[in-house]
Design a protein that fits this description.
By secondary structure, the protein is an all-alpha fold. The protein is 81% helix and 0% strand. The chain contains 19 helices and no strands. The two termini are 16 Å apart.
């Protein structure tokens, strides 16, 4: 009988302590001092960060599992895709109304850096030169350009003699002459096409091996002619719907590309390289390496934390969350036994 009374008292006391602690933490999280409390928590964590290695808090398999889920498997919802399409169209309309110039988004300094790097890539230019010289597809393309030029751009170069006109000739010698003339004309046209095609290909090959001085001069002239042009001059060449479809095509291509075993292995190997490089480093060193400082964490906590907590409290969610965290402790038999022991 006495044990039953003591047990009831311990349970009532446990419930009372739970309610008091929930109220305390709720007040602690919602008052103006809550931001200071959270900042102290971050500061305490960062004080010990130099003594904690990355491999102690996370494993390579865990990082790779996250990458697999969100990079290889996750599908964007229809609502998000619709939003992306909408914002793509709105941004396109906004860019049409902007007076920004090309040099506002790509400065002269950036142009110099990229140009300098491009001029260093001589191996790529030599590979391109070999490709332009030996590729059958390039030869076919040049042949097509030459044929099209003769047929469309220079239509009066030759007067074609069709078979009907040849057959209508009165005398046999006239027919033979016309047939001979027609064949010679075809041979000449074929020779001209071959010469033009070969000339175009040679020009492409020579262009790929221009000297650095010539390439630099050409690139600078192109840049100087276009850097002051408004961006709207380029964006108005496509419609808002084109931009939306462009983003959708990129996403669909990414969904297909990310299933490639080569790409998946490449990404996961990159994650492994990152982990192997930093796994023996402390969390503090990792934060420094990626440019994350204590003030960044503090500022972001103060910026977002109070409003989030206030919204949870306003919707009646904060107190149930705290209760869910603390309640198992006060329902634990060991906790009740400890309370009984002290009564």
């Amino acid at each position: 009988m006495t044990e039953q009374i003591v047990s009831e008292k311990s349970q009532l006391l446990a419930q009372a302590l739970l309610l008091e602690q929930v109220t305390f933490y709720k007040t602690q999280l919602t008052t103006q001092l809550s931001a200071d409390f959270f900042q102290q928590f971050i500061q305490l964590f960062l004080q010990h960060a130099p003594n904690i290695q990355l491999k102690e808090v996370i494993e390579l398999e865990q990082i790779q599992a996250v990458v697999k889920r969100y990079a290889f498997e996750m599908q964007l919802g229809a609502g998000l895709l619709e939003f992306i399409g909408e914002i793509a169209q709105k941004l396109h309309v906004f860019s049409l109304q902007s007076s920004a110039q090309l040099q506002d988004v790509f400065s002269d300094q950036q142009f110099e850096i990229w140009l300098s790097k491009f001029l260093e890539l001589e191996n790529i230019r030599h590979y391109l030169n070999h490709f332009l010289k030996e590729s059958p597809s390039i030869q076919q393309l040049c042949q097509y350009i030459a044929t099209t030029t003769l047929q469309n751009k220079l239509p009066k170069l030759f007067t074609h003699t069709d078979d009907e006109n040849i057959s209508e000739s009165k005398y046999e010698w006239q027919q033979k002459l016309k047939i001979f003339s027609h064949r010679q004309q075809q041979r000449i046209e074929h020779k001209i096409e071959e010469s033009i095609a070969r000339f175009i290909q040679e020009q492409l090959v020579d262009l790929s091996l221009l000297s650095n001085d010539d390439l630099e001069s050409l690139a600078r002239n192109i840049w100087d002619d276009n850097k002051a042009k408004p961006l709207s001059e380029y964006t108005k060449q496509v419609t808002p719907l084109d931009v939306e479809e462009f983003f959708v095509m990129i996403y669909e291509y990414w969904k297909e590309l990310r299933q490639s075993s080569f790409l998946q292995d490449l990404i996961l190997y990159g994650v492994k390289v990152f982990y192997d490089f930093y796994k023996d480093e402390s969390l503090a060193d990792v934060f420094i390496a990626i440019g994350l400082e204590e003030s960044d964490l503090q500022n972001e906590a103060v910026r977002f934390y109070p409003k989030v907590v206030a919204a949870l409290d306003e919707h009646g969610v904060l107190e149930p969350i705290i209760t869910m965290i603390l309640k198992p402790f006060y329902e634990n038999p060991q906790t009740l036994a400890s309370i009984e022991k002290h009564l």
